[in-house]
Automatic annotation (TrEMBL):
Bidirectionally degrades single-stranded DNA into large acid-insoluble oligonucleotides, which are then degraded further into small acid-soluble oligonucleotides. Gene3D superfamilies: Exonuclease VII, small subunit. The keyword Translocase does not apply. It is an enzyme of class 3 (hydrolase). Heterooligomer composed of large and small subunits. It is found in: Cytoplasm. This is Exodeoxyribonuclease 7 small subunit. GO terms for cellular component: cytosol; exodeoxyribonuclease VII complex. Its EC number is 3.1.11.6. GO terms for molecular function: exodeoxyribonuclease VII activity. Keywords: Cytoplasm, Exonuclease, Hydrolase, Nuclease. Belongs to the XseB family. The gene is xseB. The keyword Cytoplasm applies. It comes from Methylobacterium pseudosasicola.
Length: 86
């Protein structure tokens, strides 16, 4: 992404987690610098919101796929169960 003018960004839903997070971090850096014109700040903030929601959705899907191995009384693996992260 060009520091003075953002390029046309791909739809957030098309980005893998790592790329979406990278873009989100760049948006945060630009906004924290405070040297972005107001109209552009609003636009990149809105893009950041979309990227944040996309990252959260990808993380939720990954968490739902994680399983823990259950052990029998003898300590041997006996199956899997959903990971309880709460």
């Amino acid at each position: 992404m060009n520091a003075s003018r953002p390029e046309v960004a791909p739809a957030a839903g098309d980005l893998p987690f790592e790329k979406a997070l990278e873009q989100l971090e760049e948006i945060v850096r630009r906004l924290e610098r405070g040297d972005v014109p107001l109209d552009e700040s609003v636009a990149i903030y809105e893009r950041g919101e979309v990227l944040k929601k996309h990252c959260e959705a990808l993380l939720k899907r990954a968490e739902a796929r994680i399983q823990r191995i259950t052990l029998g009384a003898d300590g041997r693996p006996e199956g899997v169960a959903p990971l309880d992260i709460s």
